[in-house]
Amino acid sequence: MAEVGIDGMEIRTGKLQLDLAETFAPAQGDDPEKYTKGLGLFTSSFPDVYEDIVTMAANASRRLLDRKDISLEDIGRIDVATESAFDKSKPVSTYVAGCLEQVFEGDLHHANKGERKFACVAGTQALDDAYNWIRAGRNRGRKALVIATDTALYARDDAGEATQGAGAVAMVVDENPDLVTFSDQQGFGSADETDFLKPNQQFPSVDGKRSMQVYLARMREAMEDFERNGGDTHPDNFALIPFHTPFPGMVRRAAALGFRHCIRGNEVEEEVAEEIGRQPRQEEFDSHEAYLDAQKEYTETLTETDQYTDWYKQTIEPTLAISRYVGNWYTGSVHIARAAGMQEALDEGRDLTGKQLLIGSYGSGAQAEIHAETIQSGWEDEISQLNIDEQMEQRRDISFAEYERIHDAHNHDENREMDPLTTPDNEFVFDGWGRMGERK
Ligand code: HMG
Description:
Strand content: 15-25%
CATH superfamily: Thiolase/Chalcone synthase
Number of domains: 1
Number of helices: 15
Distance between the termini: 44 Å
Largest sheet: 9 strands, mixed
CATH class: Alpha Beta
Strand order of the largest sheet: 5-4-6-7-1-8-13-12-11
Bound molecules: 3-hydroxy-3-methylglutaryl-coenzyme A
Structural class: alpha/beta
């Protein structure tokens, strides 16, 4: 059976940019380094008034179909992953399909359309659905269009406000893909959690500190499940490890715990032990608290070793290059981390063909998923065609007063009559309900 995976991707950022150090921090009375050093974020992306989850998804998809010369007839399935949906009945994929039918020949009446929800992990779940659909042979030679799109907004003055972002990632899943293939090795960590939720409300109720603990606990479970399923997590196995990135500081923590886990019992732990001693074992301590304290101290020291810093520089740091400047995109976040890592590797002239990625996805509520991917020979061509750097450069920097207005404008789509801050250029725009996705 043919290998299945991601054949190509496109990324679309919101057209506005909020500078966290220059604009947001002074207005909040915060030290800019809380954001730039603490969270690891410099700017965030925002949608202009004529942009939303549909327009960003449709614009990313349009460029992907154009670039890969894919016709509507070639697509058998459209799945949109989002946690910013505005309609409890009609899936966002139908709106996106409607947009695409305006600009491509033919229609998408034959395509199965759906919407996937499980906080940020839904983007990866939708890829999984597409993979299973193709592997089951139900695709009749057709491809799946999988889109992760979100406007990740928090209530004003919520602790999460600095981590906001907006953007879409469109991916085509197909047989014999150009970018990466998926493996059957997968691990899950899932539990009923209430640290981040939006029950009939637009902005999340968040216990931020607890959400970080839940992220790490579920990620550890997923790693263990991946290993039980035959996955080998030795740190040398992976060229890049893209994690769900609500903000880079979260990944910094996950990476340290992940590395500690992955070296346990192997020669890397032995090498490190010569410098800093062996990892504490539960049985060596009288109380669990004492064991946890020793583990914390060991992890802090571990992150200062050459083994860790070299590994981090090579496999983690490159995956953060985009998210530092766009913020959290919820469902799209881990997919921009994959793209960022591969883009940085391309710039550095690293040859990734045949190498493995370990993808760590996460969604509040909560579920972590870990799987391996193999990079295909077409990766350089695919990644070199991304235009996310140009899009980021072209974003309009907004003042704090503009930020306040734009935040309101996207609050349940009230005040959408506000004048846009940028000019749309031959793209899908929100032009009023019932006229969704008209083209300028
Ligand atoms: P906070 O509590 O205001 O920030 O918000 P803080 O006081 O913890 O500071 C953040 C970091 O900056 C800390 O670093 C500080 O020490 C440091 P750390 O100790 O963690 O390494 N700091 C400074 N550094 C240098 N100079 C300074 C300075 N001041 C402070 N002057 C919080 C942080 C994460 C709570 C907040 O951003 C939040 O609530 N975010 C939203 C929730 C979130 O993103 N959670 C992440 C895990 S859950 C997840 O990823 C799922 C999600 O994507 C949703 C979904 O799945 O749908 C969110």
